[in-house]
From TrEMBL:
Keywords assigned: Chaperone, Cytoplasm
Pfam families: CAP_GLY, Ubiquitin_2
Record carries keyword Chaperone: yes
Any one GO BP annotation for this protein: tubulin complex assembly
Superkingdom, taxonomy of origin: Eukaryota
Domain CAP-Gly: from-to ranges: 190-232
Main location: cytoplasm
GO MF assignments: alpha-tubulin binding; microtubule plus-end binding
Region (Disordered): 148-178
Subcellular location: Cytoplasm
Protein name: CAP-Gly domain-containing protein
Similarity comment: Belongs to the TBCB family.
Record's keyword annotation contains Chaperone: yes
Organism: Ladona fulva (Scarce chaser dragonfly)
Length: 251
């Protein structure tokens, strides 16, 4: 009988994602600990542009110390010592070519699309564009692009389903990597005009937000200045969280 594995910790983990070209890790995502490392790399491929079959993933602690490498591909994400707020660093051998891509000081030779399509290199080799088209690589591979679009659509649907489960008036706790844990009340759940995707509007118990519920002239909810904020559904946990006292009220 085949061995079975299960995740004994909480089902999801919130991490920041960095790459060699973007070491600060501004991307913040939520992953199911029940997926395999191979499945994780497919998701990271859509986020970073790297190739899952040449990708190496490392986990760094909140103090930016290397914790482990995620291997083998058959292992579950939840079998590694990974926790909320950690950083997932993606390394791809193709990232090395970025070191040679600064052409700002090089005089450029430009061709029109028509000229480029007709041009051939030494020994009658096809142009790179022709090679990619003939071998169905990257954006010229309709099946691969279709899979990427389907994956993106599934993630958007998962985000929407999670967002719809978070209702206005609910008490919540917000955990965003790189920021202190904040408590508040859900005031809005839905799409917004200033960014794509599904967002949760929160009125914090303390002035730890960025707005008053109005962004770029549109009001989504009302609260005092600096008490409002918008976060992704994966950063919000709904529960019986007592209201935190605002020390400013005692002054």
């Amino acid at each position: 009988m085949a061995d079975s594995f299960q995740v004994l910790t909480k089902s999801y983990v919130n991490v920041s994602i960095s790459t060699s070209g973007n070491p600060s890790g501004p991307l913040e995502r939520r992953f199911d600990k029940g997926i395999t490392i191979e499945q994780l790399k497919v998701k990271l491929e859509l986020l970073t542009g790297g190739k899952s079959d040449t990708m190496k993933v490392e986990i760094y602690s909140k103090e930016d110390a290397l914790v482990c490498s995620l291997e083998p591909n058959s292992a579950l994400l939840g079998s590694f010592p990974i926790d909320d707020g950690m950083r997932m660093h993606v390394i791809d051998k193709f990232d090395l070519r970025k070191e040679f891509e600064d052409t700002s000081k090089v005089e450029k030779f430009e061709l029109s699309e028509e000229e480029y399509a007709k041009r051939q290199g030494p020994d009658s080799l096809d142009t790179l564009k022709s090679y990619l088209e003939k071998n169905k690589v990257g954006k010229y591979n309709e099946e691969e692009m279709k899979l990427r679009e389907e994956q993106k659509k599934r993630e958007e649907e998962e985000e929407k389903a999670l967002g719809e489960s978070i209702t206005s008036g609910s008490r919540c706790e917000v955990k965003v990597p790189g920021h202190p844990t904040r408590r508040g009340t859900v005031m809005y759940s839905g799409k917004v005009e200033f960014k794509s995707g599904w967002w949760i509007g929160v009125k914090y118990d303390e002035p730890l937000g960025k707005n008053n519920g109005t962004v770029e002239g549109k009001t989504y909810f009302v609260c005092p200045p600096k008490y409002g904020g918008f976060v992704k559904p994966s950063s919000v946990t709904v529960g019986d969280f007592p209201e935190e006292d605002d020390e400013l009220d005692e002054m």
